[in-house]
Amino acid sequence: MSFPVRAITLDLDDTLWPFAPIAERIDRVLHEWLLEHSPATAAMYPVEAMRRLRERVFHDNPHLHHDLSALRRLALREALETSGADPALLEPAYEAFYAARNQVQCYPDTLDALARIAARVPVAAVTNGNADLRRIGLAHLFAFQLGAREHGAAKPAASIFHAACARLGCDHDQVLHVGDHPEMDVAGAARAGLRSCWINRTGARWEHPELRPDLEFSTLTALADWLETRAVPAAPQCEPAL
């Protein structure tokens, strides 16, 4: 399939890097930090207990599902208060978590493929997560990063895709959204009127009942190849909105 692509919106977690190792490191680093700075909290909330607390806070606060940082702070605040810890530890504890959250190990193809893609068309990160491309060191390859927290709604809401298109200065059907999640990325983008690309690194079967992706690749390298050989637009790129 070939169609004009003037810009790309790109998911982050499990598209550029695997999230599972990050989640494991976050739990370990935060617990070690609490052992040093608030032993009572660490004793009351070992890793599994802290995980259950986060899950309950997520369940109890659906109005904050677009803001994972706020939910993380709520969980930390409750853990500190319940264990009788100094509430002033909240922000240092959050910073310990956030530093670990931004220690990512990209998939082997990511850096080269992303550079190739960014050389062809503007790339914007559109993410429900709270990774920081500046801390990670990849911000130079992106036109901007639009997070669910900043926007006020999370994928698959059409509004976050439309906001990214507006900032890129592109019509919806000129933008290709690329991500790993069948519903959040592929179906969400398609319903919003964007083209969609499923990065299927695990070889899973497509089982979404409603929609199919315009493109499917197992790596970002394959997407970069496609852009270079079959999808290079003849018209100029979109004009970013001021």
Automatic annotation (TrEMBL):
GO molecular function, one term: hydrolase activity
Pfam families in alphabetical order: Hydrolase (PF00702)
Residue ranges of coiled coil: none
InterPro entries: HAD-like_sf (IPR036412), HAD-SF_hydro_IA (IPR006439), HAD_sf (IPR023214), S-2-haloacid_dehalogenase (IPR051540)
The keyword Hydrolase belongs to this UniProt entry's keyword annotation: yes
Keywords from the named record: Hydrolase
Protein name: HAD family hydrolase
